[in-house]
Amino acid sequence: MSARVISGKEVAEEILSNDLRLRVEKLKGKNIVPKLVVILVGEMKASASYVAQKEKFAGKAGIESEVRRFEDTISEEEILDEINKINTDSSIHGVIVQLPLPKHISVTKVLNSIDPSKDVDGFTPSNVGKLFLGEDTLVSCTPKGIMSILKSADVNLTGMNVTVIGRSNIVGKPVSILCQQQNATVTMCHSKTRDLNAKLADADVIIVAAGVPKFINGDQIPNGAVVVDVGIHNIEGKLCGDVDFESASKKASAITPVPGGVGPMTVCALIENTIIAAERSS
After folding, report:
1. Is 219 noted as a catalytic residue in this protein?
2. Active site includes 98?
C-alpha cells in the first residue's frame, strides 16, 4: 500500500489563483484593496523565510503586503505603539506579529493589543473564544489550513475518529475544536499521554503537531488512516516533519509531505483571513 500524497502547495495555488483572487477583484471594484502588515523583529532566518512566502502568496491573491522590520533592541512600548497605529489605520485590514519575539517583549501583551477584527493570525482571546463557542471568527491559520487540506482530500469527518497529537494553543487545541464542529470524535494526546499507540489504534485521521522530529512512524499508524504532519525540522540540512514519512506512507491512505504540506496552506489561510477582514470592513 502506498499513500496518496496531499500537496498543500498545489491546493494553496488553486485557492489563491481562483477563489481568493476573485474575491479580491470584487473588493477592488468597491475601491477596497485588502492590506496585510507583518511586523518582523530581529534577524531570524526562519522568520525571514516565512515572511517572504507570505509576501509571495499575497502577490498571487492580489492583496497588498507590507513588512515592517525592527531591530531586536526595540522596546515593548514601541511595539505596542506600532500596533496601536495599525489598529486605527482603516487602510490596513490585517496584522500579524512574526513569532518568536525577543525575551524582553511579552508575547501575550503584544497579541492582546491587536484589534480582533485585524487579528488575521486568530490568536487574540476574543477570536479564540469565538472559535470555542462556534461563532463566526478569524480562525488561526494552521488549523484552518489543516481543515482545507482534509476537505481537498474529500475527507468527511462526520463520525470519524480523529487523534490529535499536541495540545498547543496555536494548533492542537483549535484544530480539535474545528474537527468536533465537523462531527468528528476527537482524542487529544500529548507528552504526558500514556500508551499512545492504543490511542492511535482506531484513528481514521491523525494530526501530528508534537514538535518532535519523526515522532510518529508507520508501525503506529492504522492501515488506511489519513495523516496530517504539522511539524517541520531541519536535521543536518534536510527537512522532515513530526512523522517518519517513508514508513508512514506505507500504512496511510493519504499523507501530507514536509515540506509542501501544511506550511503553504497555513500561509494561504492567512491571506484568506486578510480578505475576510477586508470584506467585513466594506
Report:
1. no
2. yes
* Residue 16 DSSP label: I
Which cell numbers hold the place of 100?
518568536
31-116 has which CATH code? 3.40.50.10860
Catalytically annotated residue among 35, 98, 204, 214: 98
Q: In the annotation, is 121 catalytic?
A: yes
Report the 3 state secondary structure along 226-244.
EEEECCCEEECCEEECCEC
Q: Which are the contacts of 146, defined by CB distance < 8 A and separation ≥ 6?
A: 171, 175, 178, 207, 228, 230, 262, 265
pTM of the predicted protein model: 0.95
Active-site position among 35, 118, 121, 251: 121
As a whole number, mean pLDDT of residues 262-275 equals 97
Model pLDDT for residues 184-215, shown as the tens digit of each residue: 999 999 989 999 999 999 999 999 999 999 99
Q: What is the CATH number of domain 141-263?
A: 3.40.50.720
The yes-or-no answer to whether 31-116 and 141-263 have a common fold is: yes
Report the alpha-carbon distance of residue 214 to residue 235 in Å, rounded.
11
Catalytic residue among 54, 173, 199, 214: 54
Q: Are 175 and 147 in contact (CB under 8 A)?
A: yes
Place of cell 487545541: 173
* Domain range list for the chain: 31-116, 141-263
In angstroms, the CA 232 to CA 26 distance is 36
